[in-house]
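request received
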Amino acid sequence: MKKTIITVVGKDTVGIIAKVCTYLAGNDINILDISQTIVQDYFNMMMIVDANKSSKSFGDMAVELDKIGEEIGVKITCQHEDIFNKMHRI
Amino acid sequence: MINMFEVNETNKMIEQENLDVRTITLGISLLDCIDSDLEELNRKIYEKITTTAKDLVKVGNEIEKEYGIPVVNKRISVTPISLIGAAACKTIDDFVTIAKTLDKAAVEVGVNLLGGYSALVSKGMTASDELLIRSIPKALATTERVCSSVNLGSTKTGINMDAVRLMGEILLETAEMTKEIDSVSCMKLVVFCNAPDDNPFMAGAFHGVTEADAIINVGVSGPGVVKTALSKVRGESFEVLCETIKRTAFKVTRVGQLVAQEASKRLSVPFGIVDLSLAPTPAIGDSVADILCEIGLEYAGAPGTTAALALLNDQVKKGGVMASSYVGGLSGAFIPVSEDQGMIDAVLAGALTLEKLEAMTCVCSVGLDMIAIPGSTKATTISGIIADEMAIGMINQKTTAVRIIPVIGKDVGETVEFGGLFGYAPIMPVNQFSCDAFVNRKGRIPAPIHSFKN
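response:
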C-alpha cells in the first residue's frame, strides 16, 4: 500500500485542519497519522494518508489541495512517501 | 514511520537548497538502424527515437509531480553517429542530414537536448569518423538540440594527436559558424579522454556500444544541499567535514536512485546507472564554488582549492556509492565556469585562472568546462590545451573533458551571455606562447606504462 504524505505549512489561522480534513473525508482518503506544531505563529502539519480507495487521481488531489491551501493562505504539498523513506531509511 | 522532522528536511532541500534530479537520460541504441541507403537510415533513426522515447517527457513530469522533486531535464543519448552513418554517409552533408533528423526527433518527443553526434577515435580515425568530425561545425550550426562529443584518448590506447590537432581547427570553425550569437554552438561540443559509455549529462552523453538496446541513466544534483549542510559545521575538523558531505551525498543520491527506478519501471526500460554528481547551475546557492568557500577558501582558485576539491569529490563518491545499486557516468563534482555563479565571481575577482582550473581537473570528475576564451586564439593553442587535459585523464585513469568556447570577435575583459542554465562567462586569458611544433607532429601518444595490466 502506497501512502501519501501531505504537508501544510503557513501562517496559523482558524480552521486549517478542518478544511483539509473535510476535503480528505469527502474524497474517501483515510488519515493514518497526523503531527502538528506551531513555531513562532507558523503552522506546520504533516499527515500520512491512504488515498488508495479514493476515486481522485494523485494529480487531481495535489491540484485541489493546492487550491484549498491558496484559499486559506498556507502551502499544501502532496508527495508519495517513497521519497522520504528512500532518503531517511536504509 | 517517517516523522515530521525528516519530511521537513527533505522538503527544505527541494524548496530552498535547489535539490533536483538534473536529468533523466534515455540511452537508445541505433545499431539496428544502420542502412547503406541514407534516406532509409534517416527514416529508421527518426522512427526508433520517436517510438522508444515517446513517453519519456510525460513520465518525467509524472514523477516530478508525485514525489514533489523537480526533474529538470529529460534527454536522449544515442549510439555514436560515426558508427551509425558509416555505411551511408559519403560526404559532410550526408552526416548533417542525420543531425537534422536527430534534431527533429528531439523536438517531436519534447527533449531539450540529444547527445551522440559523436565519434570514438582514441586510437585512430576511420574515414567515417573523420567525416563526422568535419561535419560537426555545420551540424551544430544548423540544429538546435543536438550535442556532439569526440573521444580523443584513453588510458588503454593513449592519445590520438591527429584527432587532437583536427579538433582544435573544428572548434574554431564551429565558433566561426555561429559568431553572430557569441559562438554558442561550442557549448554543444565536448572532447573527452576516457569517455564513459553511460554518462547522462550533456553535452557529452552518448549511448555506448556496450550498452543494451535502451537504458535509463539519471543524474542528480545538489550543490546547495551540501553547502547548507556544511554551513552548520564551520570550524569543525576534517573528519566532521567529510562525514557531513558523505551523509548529504547519500541522501541526494537516494533520490536519484528512486527516480531512476520509477522511470525505468514506468517506461519498461532497464535502469542503467545513477551519476553521483554535484552539477551547479547559475542559480544563487546552486554552486560548487560556494561549497569550496564553505570548506574554507576566500574564492575558488585560492591556494588549497585543489585539495578542497579532491576531498569534496571523494566524499561525494563515498556517500553516493552506497545509495545506489549502480553508479557510473561522470560521478563527482562538476566545475564549469559559466554555469556556476561562484566560479564566475572567482574569475572576475582574479582568483581563478585557466591554469588553476586545469590543476583542479586532476581531482574532479570532468575537465575544463564552459570556459570562454578569446576568439583570436590559434587552433594549435586550443589543441595544446586539449592535449594537456587528455594527458591528465590518460595518466590518472579518469575521465577528462574540454568544453571551451572561443568567442569570435571578443577578447579578455568582455563577457559572453549563453542564456538559461548555461549562464554567462567572462572571457579568460590564454597563455600566448606557441605549441605549434608540438601539435603539428603526426601520430599518437602511446598508452602509459600502467595501462598494461594483463
